[in-house]
Amino acid sequence: MGINFAGLTEPENVELSDLNGKSVAIDAYNTIYQFLSSIRQPDGRPLHDSQGRVTSHLSGILYRTANLIEAGIEPAFVFDGDYHELKADTIKERRDRRDKAEKEWEEAIEEGDMEKAYSKAQQTSRMTPEISSSSKELIEYLGLPIVQAPGDGEGQCAYMCTKGDVWASASQDFDSLLFGAPILVRNITITGRRKVPGRDLYREVKTEIIHLSDFLDSLGVTREQLVDMAILMGTDFNPGIRGIGPKRGLSLIKKHGDLESVLSYIDEEIPEYQEIRDIFLGELSTTDDYDVTVEEVDRDAVMDMLKSYDFSPVRIESALDRIEKSRTSNKAKRSQKTLDSWF
Fold this sequence. Notes:
Structural class: alpha/beta
Shape: globular
Distance between the termini: 49 Å
Number of helices: 14
Largest sheet: 7 strands, mixed
Radius of gyration: 21 Å
Strand content: 5-15%
Strand order of the largest sheet: 1-9-6-5-2-3-4
């Protein structure tokens, strides 16, 4: 899980339809984890086929991508490459947390506590090679661009957004802002009524837009200072300083100016801080070897693939009809808009 600045910003809430005509670079792993976490059976088990293969991610990719295209949004899915060595501790921590949650899920099942079981199961999602490869296969058959990042996928999303090849970077995390994405879109695939984990409470999740320039202005800091704040709080590349959250981090940076001064003031050390700065501020490994052109849907390939995973042919056809109908309609609208611009 990346950095969380939620308490410091008032994002612009929008409907998906407000993003008609926009292209977004989606942090694929982040989004697939959402599907694996949220699309589950009542006891917490992920959806699976008769062979025991997990299908939650494929369901999310098909139906929620159809929602995006229906709204006039064209996504490009960006997949992580090799993780930075400084991320090793975070990877291990996530693995340990999943292992612990799996044991607690099993205990909840034995106790018959389905609410607890579901909550714990959501924390057990794993990105296996099969899940990754089947996700890419389905995305390709849907005619959607796939970008293979050499390193951090969210950094690649931000890079594509900075270049103007996509309108925004889409992720649940705020790391795209640290990487310099001019526009971040959150909750693009999980809108609607969602249960609050561990509580008998539901909340309405809306798509959010955050403009980096407006965010920095509202905080009264530079992007460099925002990165320093994040390092104090803890990122995927370092654990941060205990007791420093968004508000205290902001206060310290605004008062003392930069990370070095804050560390001196609180008498703490973050040995790798300059290397972490460099990751966010320009030395991340990215690639220009990508194409965000949208291709036609290969209906037969989608049908064959998803039927092999026990998907209902009727539901597959319905989703594909929605996608193709929406693309035809959206293309006609864009053509008409271009024509109108001449008069």
